Amino acid sequence: MTRHIRHAAAFCALLLVALLANALRVQVVQSGTYDGNPANRRDAIARYAQPRGDILVGGVPVTGSRDTGEQLRYERTYRDGPLYAPVTGFASQVYGTTFLEHAGDDVLSGADPLLSAFPLWNDVTRGRPPGGNLVTTLNPAAQRAAYEGLDGRKGAVAAIEPSTGRVLALVSSPSYDPAVLSGNDAGAARAWARLNGDPDRPMLNRAVRQTYPPGSTFKVVTAAAALDAGVVTDLDAATRSPDPYRLPGTTTRLTNEGEGCEDAPLRDAFEWSCNTVFAKLGVDTGLARMTRTAQAFGFNDTDVRIPFAVAPSTFDTSLDRAQLALSSIGQFNTRATPLQMAMVSAAVADGGQVRTPYLVERTTRQGGATVATAGSRPSRQAMYPSTARRMRELMEGVVREGTGTNAAIPGAVVGGKTGTAQHGVGNAGIPYAWFVSWARGERDVEPRVAVAVVVEDGSARRGDITGGGMAAPIARAVMEAVLGS
Amino acid sequence: MTKAGVGARAGAGATVAAADAPAPAARLPRRRGVELSLIVLAVLLCVYGYCAVGLAKTGTVPPGAAGYGAGLGVLALLAHLAVRLRAPCADPLLLPIAVLLNGIGLVLIYRLDLETPHDRAAPTQLVWSTLGVALFILVVAALRDHRELQRYAYLCVVAALALLALPILFPAVNGARIWIRIAGFSIQPGEFAKVLLAVFFAAYLAANRTALTYAGRRFSRFDRLQLPTGRVLGPIVTIWLLSVGVLVLERDLGTSLLFFGLFVVMLYVATGRTGWIAVGLLLASLGAVAVGRLEPHVHSRVEDWLHPFATIEAGQGANQLAQSLFSFAAGGVTGTGLGLGHSVLIGFAAKSDFILATAGEELGLAGLSALFLLYGLLVERGYRTGLSLRDPFGRLLATGLASIVALQAFVIAGGVTGLIPLTGMAMPFLAQGGSSVVTNWAIVALLIRVSHSARRPGRTPSDAPRDEPHGTPGDKISGRSG
Question: Which InterPro entries match (chain A) (predicted)?
């Protein structure tokens, strides 16, 4: 019997070894796959177990965190939610994150390894450092001026600092309060359904995720290409362009809104936005030069991140001459985001250089110690500096005596370009009012702000929609806010 | 019968006789002081764990720490006093291990109570532990000699079958019909039945093991595979079939597996015939395949075991087993620390069947291994007691009780870690469950009692009859059954 008791004991020892070996397998060998399983909620619990870092505008947080005591514990709160929604996006337990909340998530949630004071320390303690902060480049006064200028109408504003590419304002209207999407409860689900069902699409970030036909504001690009290519050498020489202009190879006749465009010199054509002149100018410049200049301004760049992705603006590279003529006045299938048009304006203001726009100045630890700064950004030359100088002259003329007088600021040098973009089948849609501009204050050495405004106002009468009338005052308010701060 | 067969049989008999020679009669030290120190250590460890939970969850030492420590300490000391007075030669490791496991169980349940407000599982478990220790003291004090139990073998088996059959009259809970509810308390009678059945098996096999081993028909061609006569084997197989049958009716597959394993192990130890293991394994696999195919409750368990993440892929979220695996994985080597895991995600069985997941997550592989080794040590002390005894009943009883603990711990621990299909069982001492805690205290009490006999100095042959393979029949049991 002794022998068999020993056998039974040996059998139990075998079972023990099997248990230990299996525990080793589950807890060490395969723990990575188990930890990473999407149904494992531990990651989400750890993520929401501490307050999220904040997004700062003008040194003040526009976000906050609220302790709910629930399993996914801290919920996001927002100060001036609708005003900053196109920048912050939302951070929801259920619906994830968007925009800066998404792009800066590692820092905000504390997962970024840069946040821990000592490398590997948090691996040892299994802790997660407190969330870091994102300090934005936004100018709160400009942001508010843009938001209030749009006043709930559909549209967007983008403003950047020409010499650096810092984004000073990024507004989309109508907006929404991202706070309604934070949290675990049924309220978030209802808000999600309501916002997604809204025909005005309040969660659409029109400043960076929506492209519009740029209309006449694209004439800045066309003019720059023509000047760079030497198609026009004298701003005040006649351009030998007919009115109406027959699109090459077609019988379609292009006309102008106003009179006096026939043979108009570039300066007058730019000030009064002559379609015929610029359509012919684009064709004369040629597809290759037009494409090169447009792409130098940032068109067709699919990889713009500020740090969240910006929808690519497009300038078609395979066009016949009639299509090129239309594209040169910002129609056909030319499309641009408001941010892209602000970059165009900023390039003119900054001697022809296009700076990569960015929204995050620096990231800090919770206490405020800087972890990373934006650093120097790549820039490229969109046109010769001499061309840029002449383009500034042209744009100043628009504001001084052309279609953009509504943007004039006493005591400041302002350049601009209006646009009224046709769209829809047979151009049946209510046109979009555009205005792009830049401004230099009295005591400034160089322009401090470049703005693009687009208003898509379904309630206005068709004839009243002009870039100068609807969009220019908003641009002026934004520029005044920047110059005054 | 061939000549070789005779030789082999004689050889086997000789080996058994040699191996079962009396243990040396050297006086073993009593080591009650060691037991006391280990108990104090165990209680302190548990109080430390209790405080660690509170510090992790609220940043303060929990208000009940003193009460919890005092309660556990008083229980342990009373048990120790009973051992010191009534079984002074007992193995000094058994009681401290039981106290430590029970204490850790209380800490883990308290820790999970904090995640589920309005739950008072830990205080309830403390009440049941008190009852368990009371039963422990009663057994240690009242049972003068474990061999007295032999007399009650048939009473035990009748009681066991009655207890097993009782839940059939009550409604099923979570798919298994193993609970009875009285005045708000739910009791699992099958838990008590396993001790009674072990006593019966030990008594019956001790009385009939000679007949089981050597009498009976042989198959002419496979003469090593010798079946005992139906007259001897019949009653015990009948009892076993009845108990397993009842459990299958109640869908308590963990316990039926335990009973089956217990039966095979005890039969093997009593008769020493490897054939029993072979027959047992064959029957077990046949039974497992049949039940796994036909019975939906079991079938789903097997499917879960083979594909623990199937429900996730089907978009229904993680099932209990997947959640349990996540828990273990989250623990890693060193664990998250008491109170800092999320094993509560497992759901309603977190405190009972899946208590080990909390240990695995918060104490890590290190803590889990320590727990497994504690069970291993408890089982090892049980087998050692069996080895050092000389009366067949005591040997079989100690072996059987140790096997219950080993099999039960393996079945549930293997289930929640994905080693074998999951069967709902309680981790001995650790899991929430009154019947289970009380039963385990009874098991430890019996082991203490038996080990006292084993280690008692000055045993005489009359005191402990020689364990002769050709020992005299005429036990009360064989007398009755014959």
Answer: Beta-lactam/transpept, Beta-lactam/transpept-like, PBPA_dimer, PCN-bd_Tpept
